[in-house]
Amino acid sequence: MCAEKNTRIVPICDPLEIIQCIMRLTPLEINAYKLLLSKGTLAVKELASLLKCSRSAVQKALQRLHVLGLVDRQKVLRRSGGYMFIYKAIPLEEVDDECIKLVLKLVSLMAHKYRSLEVREEHLNEHNL
């Protein structure tokens, strides 16, 4: 009989690294996403301070993260007038699901492309070209 060991599944790499690769995130974008995951909701000014980066660079990163579906934003009225956005990260589990869909779509596209190349090669071989 074998003694049972404490086994734990260890991921091959960090899920955030996979997300960064699949979605082609810049270091600033992935760092902003990580901070939002850990801190909850933050405004651009707060994130810029934590990231030690300009507000305009952080704003641009957050806009891209929002378009990619990695963060939600909520419009908040300021007491002094006008409004600002508060950002919140989409939970990693939900993002992982989207990444899996993207990877499966990529695999499907690659398989289709490969099959079409095989068909072309067979056609050329049949005609000795």
Task: Please provide a written account of the structure.
- This protein has 129 residues and is an alpha+beta fold.
- The chain has one domain: Arc Repressor Mutant, subunit A (Orthogonal Bundle).
- It has five helices and three strands.
- The chain has a three-stranded antiparallel beta sheet.
- A hairpin with a 5-residue loop joins strand 2 (71-77) and strand 3.
- Helix 1 (15-22) packs across helix 5, helix 2 crosses helix 4 (55-67) and helix 3 (44-51) crosses helix 4 (55-67).
- It is elongated and about 75 Å long.
- The model has no long low-confidence stretch (mean pLDDT 83).
Judging by the overall fold, what is the CATH architecture? Orthogonal Bundle
Between the first and last Cα atoms, what is the distance in angstroms?
62 Å
- How many helix segments? 5
The CATH class label is: Mainly Alpha
Largest sheet: 3 strands, antiparallel
Could you tell me the strand content as a percent range? 5-15%
By secondary-structure content and strand pairing, the structural class works out as alpha+beta
Q: What share of the residues lie within helices?
A: 55-70%
